[in-house]
Structure formats: C-alpha cells, structure tokens
C-alpha cells in the first residue's frame, strides 16, 4: 500500500531544504566571520524583515506575530542577534516597557551581501512555476496558515 502524502510532512521537508540552503549560503558568504556563520536561517529572515521595515518602530511582539513564534523563541533569537552586534534594542519615549529593534551597521552590510543569495534561492525555488501557479500557491498557503491559527 502506497503511503498517502500529507501537507504537514511535505511543508516540513520543504522548510528543511530551504533552511539548509539559506544556512549554507550564509556560511559561504561569511566564511571569514565565525560569529555570523553560526546564525540560523531564522536569524536571516528576521534581519530581512527588520531591513524591509526600517521606517517603522518594530518590537519583539511584531516578530512574534509575523513569524508565528512564541515570546521565548523571539527573545532567544533577538538575544543571539544582539550578542553578535546585529541589532540594538532602543527604548522608546512613549512607553518605557518597549524597546524597538534597530539593525546595526554590521547587519546592514551583511544583509546587502546575503540579499543576492536569497534572490538566487527564490529564483531556484520558483523555477518552472507560472505567475498563476505562484498566486495559487500563496493563496493556498495563506488558507492553510489561517486554518492552523483558528
């Protein structure tokens, strides 16, 4: 009897392949920077999100929501990034409890260098898919995420 494919398993395998590719790309770009090559793909995604939203005040809670991660996970990621001098947590005037997340100059330089690798990955992942297929894929993924969150 042939085993039936499951969405969860297939997405997990795909996520592992993408994570491995990003980790390897980061290691190849930054092989001379031991503190950076130990970063995970998640750290790179967070850095990219902060990079693309520099004009906004972003906080740990924003990352928790965007990446659907727990507070403890977000805290661990940010602590690692802070220890590697990739982010600063800056207090805001309007709420002493909040600390906005700001990329350091080092992070901006690293992000620019890795962006090319991430674009190459996106091209590789979407190779052979039409824009209609991509639209359908994103629509289906959004529905799956919504189903899980409800």
Structure description:
With 150 residues, the chain is mostly helical. It is 67% helix and 10% strand. The chain has helices at residues 7-29, 34-37, 41-52, 60-67, 71-83, 105-126, 131-149, and strands spanning 87-92, 95-103. It has a two-stranded antiparallel sheet with strand order 1-2. A hairpin with a 2-residue loop joins strand 1 and strand 2 (95-103). The longest helix is centred in the N-terminal third of the chain and has 23 residues, at 7-29.
The N- to C-terminal Cα distance equals 34 Å
Could you report the average pLDDT, rounded to the nearest whole number?
88
Low-confidence stretches: none
Spatial order of the strands forming the largest sheet: 1-2
What does the secondary structure layout of this molecule look like, with pairings?
Blueprint (H helix, E strand, L loop, with lengths): L6 H23 L4 H4 L3 H12 L7 H8 L3 H13 L3 E6 L2 E9 L1 H22 L4 H19 L1
Antiparallel strand pairs: 1-2
Helix pairs in contact: 1-6, 3-6, 4-5
Which tags fit this structure?
150 residues; single chain; globular; mainly alpha; 67% helix; 2 strands; 7 helices; two-stranded antiparallel ribbon
């Amino acid at each position: 009897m042939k085993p039936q494919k499951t969405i969860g398993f297939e997405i997990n395998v795909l996520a592992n392949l993408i994570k491995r590719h990003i980790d390897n790309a980061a290691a190849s770009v930054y092989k001379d920077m031991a503190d950076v090559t130990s970063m995970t793909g998640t750290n790179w995604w967070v850095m990219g999100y902060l990079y693309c939203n520099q004009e906004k005040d972003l906080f740990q809670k924003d990352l928790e929501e965007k990446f659907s991660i727990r507070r403890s996970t977000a805290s661990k990621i940010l602590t690692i990034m802070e220890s590697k001098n990739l982010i600063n947590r800056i207090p805001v005037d309007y709420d002493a409890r909040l600390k906005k997340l700001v990329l350091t100059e080092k992070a901006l330089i690293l992000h620019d260098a890795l962006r090319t690798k991430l674009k190459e990955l996106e091209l590789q992942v979407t190779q052979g898919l039409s824009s209609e297929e991509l639209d359908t894929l994103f629509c289906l993924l959004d529905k799956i995420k919504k189903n899980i969150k409800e």
